[in-house]
Amino acid sequence: MCSDAVDTEGDLAQEHEALLQFVYMAPVGLVQARTDGEIVMINPVAAQLMMPLSHDGGLSNLFTALVDIAPDLRSRLAAFAAPQGMVCDGMHLPAPGGARGERRLYSFSLIKLDDKRIMAMLQDVSWQAQRERLLRHQESWLNAILTGVTDYALINLDARGCVTEWNESIGRVTGHGHEVVGRSLAVFYPEDAITPERVQDRLHEAEHNGWSLDDGWRQRADGKRFWGSAMIAPQRALAGDSQFAAALAANADAAETGYCLIVRDMSGQRDAAQEARHAAVCDHLTGMGNRRAFFDAAETELRRWQRLPRPLSLVLIDADHFKNINDTHGHPVGDEVLRHIARVMGATFRQIDVVARIGGEEFAALLPSADAQSAQRVAERLRATFEAHPAPTDAGPVRCTVSIGIATVDESTSSVEALLKRADEALYAAKHNGRNRVCGPAAALAEPG
Amino acid sequence: MTTHLALEFAQTELLDQLLTLDASELDTLEFGVIGIGADTVVRDYNALESKMAGLSKERVIGHPLFTVVAPCMNNFMVAQRFEDAAAAGKALDLTLDYVLTLRMRPVKVQLRLLAGRSAERRFVLVNRKP
Which residues contact B65 (CB under 8 A, 6 or more apart)? Predict the structure, then answer.
């Protein structure tokens, strides 16, 4: 009996150790935490992925450790009303911290176990993401054609992107009459949602990839807006279906034959897939673009710049003394201030600008076709607005000024990270020189006066 | 039960000293010792490290450190440092603050990374912070 007991105990110890090693070796990061984020258990891969993000060299709190790449986790969890369940499932988070400084993509899931415990799963999916991107493109292409829509207009464009002929579907969906012939496809967009450069980008991308697709606000002839998508395809590529690939390869003269534009009215479409897409690219707290959306858009914009240089500026905005607001009034008021910042940014920037919350109290706006001076002008307007208008909160008006750094893309801009770093240096100069001010690239280099 | 070893985590020229010790002598040290070869396979794993991590030597020795034993160090902060030093043919002696997941608890530690020029024998030393 006695030896049996010892054996059982030995077996248990062995099993315990094997179990421990199983979790040590698990190829995904696992974290168990309290609902305030304090980490209770964490396995090695989670530490491997999170240590490069940690500001204080520690991993005591999940929300703090991930604040740079997912600043809205705390509010996502707070907004999750069910007693248990999946708070986010496989959310993609761009992260710095590759071995040679390259950007990685993490997949992140958060599960609420009960009112005291949460569990997180973290995985580096950079390679999978690259493979899946191709598949996703094909999928969205199919969706664009097959998904039920309120109505669509089929529009022929010439090589410069101008409407070549009128038909009934144009009249039905956009309200335009025959006068639309000869005008640029920009006529279907609200004024601040497109630039002549962007029109050329879309045509180029359509030719290069076989198609170009974007969702967003469209505008009818009477000025009314509707949510729609626009797909542009070179005409020859659309015509040859079975020999799609061959047609692509042979369409060297697509620029001469022109393009086909399909504008789809998607008003009232709010299916689950759309909600999911929205959740993936939007910051939960402010509703504006999130870090991932920003990086995706910025990389596209930088590629366009590299093909055809034109003004492109980045405005980096940081709320001054934000920690004081949280400390004085509490997080809910801090959240209201962040939403105020998002609203003011939304009202200040154009629709074509990419505005996003990219950190806890850090926001970014990427301004296509805007040089340093015009970026400076709009940034100054933004700064003055925050100075003059406190955020309305439950604790009364809370004044929160902002510091702003500006960087403009030039030949030396090798990546989005490099551009961000330059804007960050200018932002640092703005902070250093007393906050509530705008600094451009020159100021970042100059000695503080 | 020899106590003649008074090697300390932070002392100078530690690599040379460690290389003279056998397994039982490494066990008397008061900091964690993980020794790896040029192939990153674990050769030494002392008693203190084994106790802190909750893994017996048999489960660890002979396995690659960065993939099987301690994936948490497989990033640019630790593994890359060894790789870079080896590629450059340089010795490495670097102390850094880190967090290990000992028995799944995040534990603040100091790591000291030691490697000779040849990278034949390399060490990760672990000091639990007071």
Answer: B34, B36, B40, B41, B42, B73, B124
Smallest CA–CA distance, residue A100 to chain B, in Å, is: 7
- Inform me whether the pLDDT recorded for B94 exceeds 90: yes
Total structural domains within chain A: 3
Q: What pLDDT does residue A248 have?
A: 43
CB-CB neighbours of A34 under 10 Å: 13
Kindly tell me if the per-residue pLDDT of B56 is higher than 80: yes
Predicted local confidence at residue A26, as pLDDT: 83
Asked if A51 lies within 8 A of B101 by C-beta distance, the reply is: no
Angle, helix A291-307 to helix A272-281, in steps of 10 degrees: 80
Quote the pTM value: 0.58
Are A46 and B101 an interchain contact pair (Cβ–Cβ within 8 Å)?
yes
CB within 8 A of A171, min separation 6: which ones?
A177
Which H or E run includes B19?
helix B14-19
Please name the residue that has the structure tokens 């979790």.
Answer: A23
Q: Are residues A298 and A365 in the same domain?
A: yes
User: Phi and psi dihedrals of A108, rounded to 5?
Assistant: -130, 130
Q: Are residues A441 and A296 in the same domain?
A: yes
Give yes or no: residues A117 and A155 share one domain.
no
Question: What residues of A are in contact with residue B79 (Cβ under 8 Å)?
Answer: 99
Contacts of A146 (CB under 8 A, 6+ apart): none
Which residue carries 């090697």 as its tokens? B7
Q: Is the Cβ pair B74, A60 closer than 8 Å?
A: no
d(CA A421, CA A428): 10
Same domain, A366 and A217: no
> Which of helix, strand or coil describes residue A180?
helix
Q: For residue A4, is it within any domain?
A: no
A297: containing domain:
285-445
- Note whether A24 contacts B76, CB cutoff 8 Å: no
Structure tokens at A90: 């496989």
Q: What is the ipTM of this complex?
A: 0.79
d(CA A442, CA A192): 29
Domain shared by A167 and A316, yes or no: no
CB within 8 Å of chain B, chain A residues 16-35: 17, 20-21, 23-25, 27
Residues of chain A with pLDDT under 50: 1-3, 237-255, 444-449
User: CA A398, CA B80: separation in Å to the nearest integer?
Assistant: 46
Q: Any idea where the domains of chain B sit in the sequence? A: 14-128
User: Looking at the complex, does the CB of residue B75 fall below 8 Å from at least one CB of chain A?
Assistant: yes
Give domain B14-128's CATH architecture: 2-Layer Sandwich (3.30)
- Report the distance separating Cα A239 and Cα A247, nearest Å: 9
